[in-house]
Each structure stands twice: as structure tokens, then as C-alpha cells.
Amino acid sequence: MSVRRILPFLALGLILILAACSGSSDKANPNSESYTVTMNVLPDPPVVGDVLLYFTVLDAQGVPISGATVEVGADHIDMTGMGMHGPATDQGKGIYAVTTNFSMSGNWKISVRLEDGAKTYSKEFQLIIQ
Ligand SMILES: [Cu+2]
């Protein structure tokens, strides 16, 4: 099943595509506020090609956070210098989404940096592309 065929069921809005970059990802901020960020992918399990990454952001009380800035990085752990970076767009109800074109299978690190007003939060996920 392709990403395009699944998208209408999620009623997602504007979704940007991660662009290639060579910068390093941010490190976790030890002073960050407490958030719960979960990641889901389409298709699942993810395969080489376009993969929709979408993140659900909740505050410490479990309330969805809208209007935040969410930056996403994707780095191929198996190789150096193979990374992408860009914003995930706000879909409402605490969901932020970005389409990422994974050109290679293997182990990828997904880095998320959240800015919610003056508060920040960072989290990393491991993603295996089949
Ligand atoms: Cu690679």
C-alpha cells in the first residue's frame, strides 16, 4: 500500500519533505520541559522510498500541543554524512507530519526538536528501513 493511498484517511494537511543536509543534529536539552512525543510511520513497516513520519506531541498532562515548531532530522546510522532535515507541519490535535524519502535501507536515527513557546524538547528515535 502506498503512502498516497493511505493519506486521505488521515486527513493530513500540508506536508513538507525533508531536505538533504550535512549539519549535525541537536543534543537533548537537559532543561527541557516534560513532553511525550511518539512517532508513527506510513507505510509500517517503513521501506525504501517515501515514508510519512508523524509525531504526536502531548504535554505532561497528556494534552495535545498545537502550534509548536517541530524540526525533524533523519540520519543514516550506518553511514556518515547521509542526513536530511526539515520541519514537520502541524496537522492539528498534536500531530506533526513530514514526508521523508529514504534512499537506503538500514538503521536510521530520527531526531525531533520541539519548540513550544520558550520551551524546548528533544527526542531521538531509531527507525529500521526495510
Ligand atoms: Cu546511506
Structure, briefly:
The chain is mainly beta. The chain has one helix spanning about 5-10; strands spanning about 15, 20, 35-40, 50-60, 70-75, 85-90, 95-100, 105-115, 120-130.
Structure commentary:
The chain is mainly beta and 130 residues long. The protein has a single domain, classed as Immunoglobulin-like. Helices cover 6% and strands 55% of the residues. The chain is built from one helix and nine strands, in the order H-E-E-E-E-E-E-E-E-E. Strands 1, 2, 3, 4, 5, 6, 7, 8 and 9 form a nine-stranded mixed beta sheet that branches. Strand 6 and strand 7 form a beta hairpin. The longest helix has 8 residues. The radius of gyration is 14 Å and the shape is globular. Bound molecules: copper (II) ion. Copper (II) ion (CU) binds next to loops.
